[in-house]
Structure formats: C-alpha cells, structure tokens
Specification:
Shape: globular
CATH class: Alpha Beta
CATH topology: Rossmann fold
Number of helices: 3
Structural class: alpha/beta
CATH architecture: 3-Layer(aba) Sandwich
Radius of gyration: 15 Å
Helix content: 25-40%
Distance between the termini: 13 Å
Length: 139
C-alpha cells in the first residue's frame, strides 16, 4: 500500500491542543506525554491547561500516582503502547486515533489508513525515509 504524506501545520496542532484541553478542563490535574511525539502535545497542553507535566518511568511505574493524569500521545495506531495503562481515574487523549482498534480515548482526528503523518516538529526532508523505515519494521 502506497501511503500519501500529510504535512501537518502548527495551526492544526494548536487546534488539537484546544480541542483536547476543552475535553479535560477541571478533570485532569497532571499530564504525561509519551516520549517522542506525545511530549510536544503534553507540553502544549500543560501550558494551556496550567497543570504540571510529569515524568514517569513507565518500565517500573515507581512513585506513579495515576489519579487525574491525562496521558497523551500524537498517534494511537495499534493500542499497544496503552496496554500497560489500565488505571481508573486516568484519562487518555491523542491527536490521531485508529478508531478501528481503540475507542475509549479522546482524539481530534481519525487516523486514515493510507496517510503518513508528518508533524510540524518533524524533519520534513526525512519524512519519506521515516515512512519506509516504519513500514519495514511492521513486516
């Protein structure tokens, strides 16, 4: 399957931040961003919502209190990353979601099967190389 590159803008990012922040206003008291892509979204949400960004060792969950934490990522494609996060009173959000796989999460847009997303913070000159490496890793 040949994917089409979709170059996202900072305005689209700002719109996603606004959308997610509105969903969790008065609910979340902390934000965790999944390293790499989730961190950009988490930092922007932390500023917008005026709540702290937290750092967690996800391999041990040492000193982790999941109450009222908003867990964010740029894309949820398979749901595998979320598999270790089954805490009550924890919220989940992403910019793009594969709704065929995962449904209980706040998102801004559905992930289209034939698109390769290039986020505003990514190196646009490496987008095709990144896409090809990803496709090889999935075989």
């Amino acid at each position: 399957m040949q994917r089409k590159l979709r170059y996202l803008t900072w305005q689209e990012f700002d719109d996603a931040v606004e959308h997610i922040a509105n969903q969790f206003k008065g609910k979340a008291t902390q934000i965790y961003g999944m390293p790499r892509g989730g961190l950009c979204l988490a930092v922007a949400l932390s500023h917008k919502m005026e709540i702290p960004l937290i750092s967690v060792d996800v391999t041990t969950f040492k000193d982790f209190n999941p109450n009222n934490v908003l867990w964010v990522d740029d894309v949820v494609e398979t749901g595998l990353t979320l598999s270790g996060f089954g805490y009550p009173n924890m919220y989940f959000a992403c910019w793009f979601l594969n709704t065929k796989v995962f449904k209980n999460i706040c998102f801004k847009e559905s992930l289209k099967e034939n698109e390769w997303l290039v986020f505003p913070w990514e190196d646009k000159t490496k987008a095709i190389k990144d896409m090809k490496q990803y496709e090889i890793s999935r075989k």
